[in-house]
Amino acid sequence: MKSPIKVSGIDHVVFHVKDLARARKFYVDFLGMEVDHERGWQCFLKCGTQGFALFEMKDEVHAGSEVNHLALRLAAGDLAQARKTLDDAGIQFSGRAGDPDCVYLHDPDGHQLQLLAAKI
């Protein structure tokens, strides 16, 4: 039986964070996301046309145990420029063997992020 439900896209993904202000600063000021709306312990961001949310948790945050990583496509520039920016900010990062088109790093709560080169 075919389901009558058909999703049209992902509205948002949520990361649990320990310090909402710190996480918001990282994603907005460093990665260039835009605040869509926020209230209390929640901050909803826009990443292009995609939604992303930060929920502040009083309990311990278990980064990586619920989601492996969030892959983010660079809007412009190249990974060499991104690597220099990360290095200048003192943020540790790594590449993936045999793949020059991505960089891995962690946000302040330990969630793994992947930066992918801008599409040409």
* CATH architecture descriptor text of the largest domain: Roll
> What name is given to the CATH topology of the largest domain?
2,3-Dihydroxybiphenyl 1,2-Dioxygenase, domain 1
**Spatial gap, N to C terminus:** 41 Å
Strand content: 35-45%
State mean pLDDT (0 to 100 scale): 89
Helix content: 10-25%
Uncertain ranges: none
Number of strand segments: 8
Q: CATH class of the largest domain, please?
A: Alpha Beta
DSSP summary: helix tally: 2
* Strand arrangement in the largest pleated sheet: 1-4-3-2
Biggest sheet details = 4 strands, mixed
Molecular structure report:
The protein is α/β, with parallel strands linked by helices and 120 residues long. It has two domains: 10-59, 2,3-Dihydroxybiphenyl 1,2-Dioxygenase, domain 1, CATH 3.10.180.10; 68-120, Roll (2,3-Dihydroxybiphenyl 1,2-Dioxygenase, domain 1). It has two helices and eight strands. It has a four-stranded mixed β-sheet with strand order 1-4-3-2, with helices on one face. A four-stranded mixed β-sheet has the order 5-8-7-6, with helices on one face. A hairpin with a 5-residue loop joins strand 7 and strand 8. It is globular and about 40 Å long. The protein starts with 12 loop residues before the first strand and ends with a strand. The mean pLDDT is 89.
